[in-house]
Amino acid sequence: MTLSFFDQFMSPTYLGIPLIALALTLPWILFPTPSARWLNNRLITLQGWFINRFTQQLLLPLNLGGHKWAVLLTSLMLFLITLNMLGLLPYTFTPTTQLSLNMGLAIPLWLATVIIGMRNQPTAALGHLLPEGTPVPLIPVLIIIETISLFIRPLALGVRLTANLTAGHLLIQLIATAAFVLLPMMPTVAILTSIVLFLLTLLEIAVAMIQAYVFVLLLSLYLQENV
């Protein structure tokens, strides 16, 4: 029973072929495509409004140099939200519970922000490693600490997304199993457990959207330091 709880996080395979590529491709098929009409339907209008509002909010603290990342960050946000939301459906696989995938997204994007900072303003980028007014004896220690904190950033991005989604899926499965087991023995307790499960599912929908937003927001903050 203990091992079966973690089976949902195994990458599905068919005839030895990993299906994670199919799971990553599916969200792009579900997005409605804009039409050439002057007036779109409600779904496309709502999608366009959401994208515009999110892009404005995300790029508000960035200067004009960071606006080049608008398409990338907005696409990543929609992609992560769709993956996280689809993973809440029954009998589905959530690719963002895989640490390897999240690190594969976090490390290149974080590294791109660091490279941009070192290329455009190397003095300011290196100045983040040593706060102004630091006593001389503490300079080597602070440089080491700030360097370690800089390299921990992509790890924190990937682990935060993985841990939150994994914990939520495990909690949902545990409470659902408890409700199913308690139903023949204690129906009242099972009904109360089912209500808790429903509320937890609503919470996980919010977590799925918030974690995707936090992932992209932190990337934009890292970009803000380097442009």
TrEMBL record:
It catalyses: H(+)(in) = H(+)(out). Component of the ATP synthase complex composed at least of ATP5F1A/subunit alpha, ATP5F1B/subunit beta, ATP5MC1/subunit c (homooctomer), MT-ATP6/subunit a, MT-ATP8/subunit 8, ATP5ME/subunit e, ATP5MF/subunit f, ATP5MG/subunit g, ATP5MK/subunit k, ATP5MJ/subunit j, ATP5F1C/subunit gamma, ATP5F1D/subunit delta, ATP5F1E/subunit epsilon, ATP5PF/subunit F6, ATP5PB/subunit b, ATP5PD/subunit d, ATP5PO/subunit OSCP. Signal peptide: none annotated. Its main location: mitochondrion. Pfam families: ATP-synt_A. This is ATP synthase subunit a. It comes from Brachymystax tsinlingensis. The lineage of its organism: Eukaryota, Metazoa, Chordata, Craniata, Vertebrata. It comes from the Eukaryota. It is a multi-pass membrane protein.
